[in-house]
UniProtKB/TrEMBL annotation, chain A:
Protein location: Cell membrane
Record's keyword annotation contains Repeat: no
InterPro entries (alphabetical): AA_ABC_transptr_permease_3TM, ArtM/GltK/GlnP/TcyL/YhdX-like, MetI-like, MetI-like_sf
Protein name: Amino acid ABC transporter permease
Recorded topology in the membrane: Multi-pass membrane protein
Location, primary (coarse class): membrane
Transmembrane residue ranges: 25-46, 76-96, 117-135, 246-267
Keyword Endoplasmic reticulum carried by entry: no
Family under the similarity heading: Belongs to the binding-protein-dependent transport system permease family. HisMQ subfamily.
Species of the source: Flavimobilis rhizosphaerae
Residue span, ABC transmembrane type-1 domain: 72-267
PROSITE patterns: ABC_TM1 (PS50928)
Annotated keywords: Amino-acid transport, Cell membrane, Membrane, Transmembrane, Transmembrane helix, Transport
TrEMBL record, chain B:
InterPro entries membership: AAA+_ATPase (IPR003593), ABC_ATPase_HisP-typ (IPR030679), ABC_transporter-like_ATP-bd (IPR003439), ABC_transporter-like_CS (IPR017871), MetN_ABC_transporter-like (IPR050086), P-loop_NTPase (IPR027417)
UniProt topology in membrane: Peripheral membrane protein
Organism in which the protein naturally occurs: Flavimobilis rhizosphaerae
Name by which UniProt lists this protein: Amino acid ABC transporter ATP-binding protein
Cellular localisation: Cell membrane
Length: 279, 259
């Protein structure tokens, strides 16, 4: 042992083991085998003959089809209106959160913590059933109720995102605007908010995705037929006893994906673009 | 009008500024006459930027008074935005608005603060971009320009407001050496055109050639001031001598013993 030169010892050591490259190869092969085994296991757990009957039932899908365009449009409408409220209210709350006025900060913090803390479904039901009884104006429009319910919940998340964006705007940008004679409010509107929006556009897109899915919650309200959105028509088709198992749910699920997947791709593009322009 | 022509553009009296417990400016008196170019030099951390930023209230004075263009800006009820719209400021880090084009950078304050119509604002912006040699880059975004170009846009942005005083805080410190010359040339032309300027700089050659007066500041007080030939060429105070020795001959920074 002691007579061996350090160089020889090292060579012996390397020969005894796989090179890092070969080791990575072995690990990769093992991973693929495990993944394949998982697929096979899942495939074995499924009764394939009843999948066609209960999940991909063409007749059930065809029966649902005429109702899809209106429901799809309603889902989009509810989402867009809610997001419009959410973005305005969320930005306002974020500005209050970073304000120098303590009262504004407190109000905003309470709002955000409240709406992030309660299940959205509770609030949707509360707005749908209780709110019309306690406000002294007529709150009958479903669209208005939906916008209030989903928009207010979403604005709490938007506020948190926007706050991070507002704080990420470099101090020098504000100083440059002020040195040109812009007031605090003017600086906020012309420099800070537009730049914060650019920073938070990717996470904001994710918020739109969440909001799209949250429109499913309003199926728990008493909707009239022209107001039905995707989840509602899916549920109705399920309970109609027309057969086809869960096929309606899969059909409306696919409709959500038609909205959310492009949004996801859009968000990733924005993120990549943002990373490029910052480097 | 004649009275204003002779009244100082900047009149600082007994200015003190503290950040918490730390007193950064310890009683500064400085006046700048119309058309005068004053260069402020001094070691890092001596309070040069703080002094400059007190002139347009980016920092609020702790004590003392600052009068700019005939307005007492240390008065709590001052309309500071009105004063700032007549005082241009150029920052070390350029601070161009990242979400706007070069042209929009130069028009946004004209339109929102001075309420100039779009066409007039764009005409004035272009004139000033021409003046700094960037008349053809109006459509570019700041991140597409070199540091030197960005700084010249920042100067054009300030000039588009028709300022009566220009403040510069180490405008060339963040630039690659080969880009410094273009920015200094613009500033020199501005000085020769009669602009009143207060320039914090480490460019001794610029201070020597362009300044009417050089102010050396150290430890929050003005240690020495006078004509560039005197302060830079023949400094009287030992602290000024040591500072200039370090700046002008950095490879012999501790060369006092070898003299
Ligand atoms: N906002 C601030 N809060 C606390 N301390 C500050 C603040 N701004 C400046 N200082 C301190 O005040 C001192 C003077 O700063 P100032 O920026 O005026 O120096 P300077 O002469 O411009 O230096 P440099 O040449 O490095 O720019 C420094 O010690 C700095 O740490
Ligand atoms: Mg400084």
């Amino acid at each position: 042992m002691t007579t061996q030169t350090p160089a020889a010892a090292r060579t012996g050591h390397v020969r005894a083991r796989l090179s890092p490259r070969r080791r990575r190869l072995v690990v990769r092969v093992v991973q693929y085998v495990v993944l394949l085994a998982a697929f096979v296991a899942v495939a074995l757990l499924i009764k394939w003959d009843s999948v066609a009957e209960n999940i991909f039932n063409i007749d059930a899908a065809r029966a649902l089809l005429p109702k899809i365009p209106r429901a799809f449009g309603n889902t989009l409408l509810y989402m867009v209106c809610s997001f419009a409220l959410s973005i305005v209210l969320g930005t306002l709350l974020a500005l209050m959160r970073v304000s120098e006025v303590r009262l504004y900060r407190i109000v905003s913090t309470i709002y955000v913590e409240f709406f992030r803390g309660i299940p959205a479904l509770l609030y949707v039901i509360a707005v749908g059933l209780a709110l019309p009884l306690v406000v002294n104006f007529s709150l009958t429009s479903t669209l208005l109720k939906v916008t209030i319910a989903l928009g207010m919940v979403s604005s709490a998340y938007v506020a948190e995102t926007m706050r991070a964006g507002l704080q990420a705007v470099p101090r020098g940008q504000i100083e440059a605007a002020r040195s040109l004679g812009m007031s605090t409010a003017r600086t906020t509107m012309t420099v800070v908010v537009p730049q914060a929006f650019r920073i938070v556009l990717p996470p904001l897109t994710n918020e739109v995705i969440l909001l799209t899915k949250d429109t499913a919650l309003i199926s728990s309200l008493g909707l009239m037929i022209p107001e039905f959105e995707l989840t509602k028509i899916g549920q109705n088709a399920l309970s109609s006893g027309a057969g086809g198992g869960l096929t309606p749910m899969f059909v409306v699920g696919a409709c959500y994906l038609v909205i959310t997947i492009p949004l996801g791709i859009f968000a990733r593009r924005l993120e990549a673009k943002g990373a490029r322009s910052r480097s | 009008m004649t009275a204003q022509a002779t009244a100082p553009v900047v009149d600082i009296r007994g200015l003190h500024k503290s950040f918490g417990q730390r007193e950064v400016l310890k009683g500064v008196d400085l006046t700048i006459a119309p058309g005068e170019v004053v260069c402020v030099i001094g070691p890092s951390g001596s309070g040069k930027s703080t002094l400059l930023r007190c002139v347009n209230q980016l920092e609020t004075a702790s004590a003392g008074s600052v009068e700019v263009l005939g307005t007492e800006i240390t008065d709590p009820d001052v309309d500071i935005d009105a004063v700032r719209s007549r005082v241009g400021m150029v920052f070390q880090g350029f601070n161009l608005f990242a979400h706007l084009t070069v042209l929009e950078n130069c028009t946004v304050a004209q339109r929102k603060v001075l309420r100039r119509p779009k066409e007039e604002a764009e005409r004035i912006a272009l004139e000033n971009l021409e003046r700094v040699g960037l008349g053809d880059r109006g459509d570019a975004h700041p991140h597409q320009l070199s540091g030197g170009q960005q700084q010249r846009v920042a100067i054009a942005r300030a000039l588009a407001m028709d300022p009566q005083l220009m403040l510069f805080d180490e405008p060339t410190s963040a630039l690659d050496p080969e880009l410094v010359g273009d920015v200094l040339a613009v500033m020199r032309a501005l000085a020769e055109g009669g602009m009143t300027m207060m320039v914090v700089t480490h460019e001794m050659a610029f201070a020597r050639d362009v300044a009417d007066r050089v102010v050396f500041i150290d430890g929050g007080v003005i240690v020495e001031e006078g004509a560039p030939a005197d302060v830079i060429g023949n400094p009287q105070h030992p602290r000024t001598q040591l500072f200039l020795q370090r700046v002008l001959d950095p490879t012999h920074a501790h060369g006092t013993t070898t003299d």
